[in-house]
């Protein structure tokens, strides 16, 4: 589904990713861990198509197609979704209207008619129940005045609405209390299928108790320095990242 | 001949039609003298530093259109808020159109300035209020000298006027260039409530210059909500001079939506004579090309325990220029004043300009006054967020701009106006936003 080859990327001439190789297949959950500043969020943004990041070298294939030149919205239309670490507040646009616009623009790009209003409402109801979101919440301005937990739940709600093939969860666990973490993880697990894939980016192993990865990759100085099964996450939790850094520098 | 000279010499001919005994006659004579002495303002005047009238004064304007022109309702329907029941005072090339209008004298007076100026039954009101709020600046004086037509609205006490009143001026383009000087007098007595919509619309690309004066008197506990829709053609310019005198416990609001025209100058002045009242001044400006919109506001707090709220949003594209000059004066006696002012702008082009200048003159020591001004570009992180959800760049921009200006619409009390303004915003931004506005 996703194939990244020797990816180098920079922002404002500062190299951040220095040769990433990663392959994600349908049905898989990959965790990307690593110390602060290792390039985790940059990798997420580059896959999603943030323009400020310059891809200097390497390729990103999504379902066999090189998506490097595609705009963020085109990648979204193909089924790439990024759950933001810091969701942006957009006063004046309600959650519902934002989702209607996103879904209908995606449908338009695929040559489909707009989703009928009753179908949209039904979908919104189902998905908001999945994330235990109060209906009143949906008429509020997008992310404006939301608590950390509400913002993250809203991200996963959007994911549920857009039904992406590849979901990248960037530090979705940060700022969540244990109840919110459970709700969010539960939502992600219910959306998982053999046809879609998830990349979980996290600093801590905590979220991975709920969203169990098939593979764990450790990012350090813009490179994946170690990959392994889910047990690697536990090892990192116990031993920290220093041994990884030492191994990498050795 | 320069426009100024033409105006001054035309006044003599115009004066012949005036009733010499009318109390207004003296006021007009004085006003033309004031204009003759002061002339049109230039960029040397501090209040006109960023707005030059030169390009709009160069045309050879007709001051008195030669013929009356009938226009068809279907051609102008779209410029009206036609989906609600309303009173309408409609002018075509400065002349009242009884065919298009719907006035009333049942309990309230919604009619014509010319009638008010000539009929004895209105004399008391006219003498009491006419030119009592307008200042003696050159443009208002010019209007006063020539004022003969416009809207006259008098709401006696304890009347809730359920139907909004639309005041609309059309220019047909029958004159190669036309100057209009409408004069509106609006008196709202104790406990009464009125909603007014004003619009100036040129039907061709022939140059039109409108120098309008509106005097509004909101008496004790009156509520006045005024909406100005400015979306005129590219060669139409408007100088809007509006003066609002408020008495105790009244509420007055003016919303100005500026999307069109060549040059628009809004001189909006609020005078608070009394306690416990509030004044609201809000505006959305979205312009492009070489359009120019200048908001020059004044709120004069004279007595204690009053509030004012100013909120102006601007989006400027291409080579458009905007000005916001917001002055708040708090007199020494006006303790416990709460004056709030905010002006936020987005420049979507490198060539667009905004000059924003808050002016606070505070002589009282126990007041809350705040002002804030921002000038920025569209938030890139918000753009990426929306695009990552599949919303294309153009629509994302539109949605952001819509969101940026949206909170100004929250205080609009007539849903049909809200819908109309939303549509105008969407049109102006050139997109169909994917949900019902």
Automatic annotation (TrEMBL), chain A:
Please state every residue range assigned to the domain named ABC transporter. Answer: 2-246
Q: Does the keyword Magnesium apply?
A: no
Give the similarity note: Belongs to the ABC transporter superfamily. Ycf16 family.
Its lineage opens with: Bacteria, Pseudomonadati, Bacteroidota, Flavobacteriia, Flavobacteriales
Keywords in alphabetical order, please.
Answer: ATP-binding, Nucleotide-binding
Under InterPro entries, the record lists: AAA+_ATPase, ABC_transporter-like_ATP-bd, FeS-cluster_ATPase_SufC, P-loop_NTPase
Instruction: Give the organism, scientific name.
Output: Mangrovimonas yunxiaonensis
Q: Name one GO molecular function term.
A: ATP binding
Q: What is this protein called?
A: Cysteine desulfurase
Automatic annotation (TrEMBL), chain B:
For the SUF system FeS cluster assembly SufBD core domain, which residue ranges apply? 174-404
Q: Which InterPro entries match?
A: Fe-S_cluster_assembly_SufBD, SUF_FeS_clus_asmbl_SufBD_core, SUF_FeS_clus_asmbl_SufBD_sf, SUF_FeS_clus_asmbl_SufD, SufBD_N
Domain spans labelled SUF system FeS cluster assembly SufBD N-terminal: 5-167
GO biological process annotations for this chain's record? iron-sulfur cluster assembly
Cited Pfam families: SUFBD_core, SufBD_N
Top-level taxon: Bacteria
Q: Which family does it belong to?
A: Belongs to the iron-sulfur cluster assembly SufBD family.
| NCBIfam families hit by this protein | sufD
Identification of the protein by name: Fe-S cluster assembly protein SufD
């Amino acid at each position: 589904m996703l194939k990244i080859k020797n990816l180098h990327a920079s922002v404002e001439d500062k190299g951040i990713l220095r040769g990433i190789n990663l392959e994600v297949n349908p049905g898989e959950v990959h965790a990307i861990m690593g110390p602060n500043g290792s390039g985790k969020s940059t990798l997420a943004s580059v896959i999603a198509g943030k323009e400020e990041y310059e891809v200097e070298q390497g390729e990103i294939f999504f379902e066999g197609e090189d998506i490097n030149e595609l705009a963020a919205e085109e990648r979204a239309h193909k089924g790439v979704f990024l759950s933001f670490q810091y969701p942006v507040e957009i006063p004046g646009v309600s959650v519902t209207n934002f989702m209607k616009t996103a879904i209908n623009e995606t449908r338009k790009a695929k040559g489909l008619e707009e989703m009928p209003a009753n179908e949209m409402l039904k979908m919104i109801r189902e998905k908001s129940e999945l994330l235990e979101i109060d209906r009143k919440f949906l008429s509020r301005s997008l992310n404006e005045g939301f608590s950390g937990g509400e913002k993250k739940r809203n991200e996963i709600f959007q994911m549920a609405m857009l039904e992406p093939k590849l979901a990248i969860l960037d530090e979705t666990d940060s700022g969540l209390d244990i109840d919110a973490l459970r709700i969010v993880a539960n939502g992600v697990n219910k959306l998982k299928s053999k046809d879609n894939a998830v990349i979980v980016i996290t600093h801590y192993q905590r979220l991975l108790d709920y969203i169990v990865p098939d593979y764990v990759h450790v990012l350090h100085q813009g490179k994946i320095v170690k990959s392994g099964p889910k047990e690697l996450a536990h090892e990192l939790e116990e031993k920290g990242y220093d041994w990884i850094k030492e191994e990498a520098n050795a | 001949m320069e426009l100024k000279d033409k105006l001054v010499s035309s006044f003599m001919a115009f004066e012949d039609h005036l009733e010499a005994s009318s109390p207004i006659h003296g006021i007009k004579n004085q006003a033309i003298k004031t204009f003759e002495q002061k002339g049109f303002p230039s960029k040397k005047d501090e209040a006109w530093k960023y707005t030059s009238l030169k390009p709009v004064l160069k045309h050879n304007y007709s001051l008195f259109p030669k013929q009356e022109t009938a226009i068809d309702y279907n051609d102008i329907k779209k410029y009206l808020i036609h989906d609600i029941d309303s009173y309408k005072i409609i002018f075509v090339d400065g002349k009242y159109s009884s065919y298009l209008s719907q006035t009333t004298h049942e309990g309230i007076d919604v009619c014509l300035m010319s009638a008010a100026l000539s009929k004895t039954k209105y004399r008391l009101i006219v003498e009491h209020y006419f030119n009592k709020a307008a200042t003696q600046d050159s443009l208002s004086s010019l209007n006063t000298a020539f004022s003969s037509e416009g809207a006259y609205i008098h709401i006696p006490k304890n009347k809730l006027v359920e139907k909004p009143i639309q005041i609309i001026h059309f220019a047909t383009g029958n004159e190669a260039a036309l100057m209009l000087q409408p004069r509106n007098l609006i008196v709202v007595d104790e406990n009464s409530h009125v909603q007014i919509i004003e619009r100036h619309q040129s039907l061709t690309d022939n140059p039109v210059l409108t120098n309008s004066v509106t005097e509004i008197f909101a008496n004790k506990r009156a509520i006045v909500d005024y909406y100005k829709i400015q979306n005129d053609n590219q060669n139409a310019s408007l100088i809007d001079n509006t003066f609002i005198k408020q008495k105790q416990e009244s509420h007055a609001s003016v919303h100005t939506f500026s999307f069109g025209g060549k040059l628009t100058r809004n001189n909006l002045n609020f005078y608070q004579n009394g306690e416990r009242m509030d004044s609201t001044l809000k505006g959305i400006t979205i312009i492009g090309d070489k359009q120019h919109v200048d908001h020059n506001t004044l709120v004069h707090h004279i007595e204690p325990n009053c509030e004012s709220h100013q909120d102006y949003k601007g989006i400027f594209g291409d080579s458009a220029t905007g000005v916001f000059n917001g002055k708040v004066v708090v007199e020494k006696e006006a303790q416990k004043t709460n004056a709030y002012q905010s002006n936020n702008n987005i420049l979507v082009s490198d060539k667009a300009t905004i000059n924003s200048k808050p002016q606070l003159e505070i002589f009282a020591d126990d007041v809350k006054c705040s002002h804030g001004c921002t000038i920025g570009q569209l938030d890139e992180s918000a753009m990426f967020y929306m695009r990552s959800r599949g919303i294309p760049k153009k629509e994302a921009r539109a949605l952001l701009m819509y969101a940026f200006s949206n909170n100004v619409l929250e205080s609009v009390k007539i849903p049909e106006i809200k819908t109309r303004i939303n549509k105008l915003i969407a049109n102006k931004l050139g997109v169909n936003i994917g949900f019902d506005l």
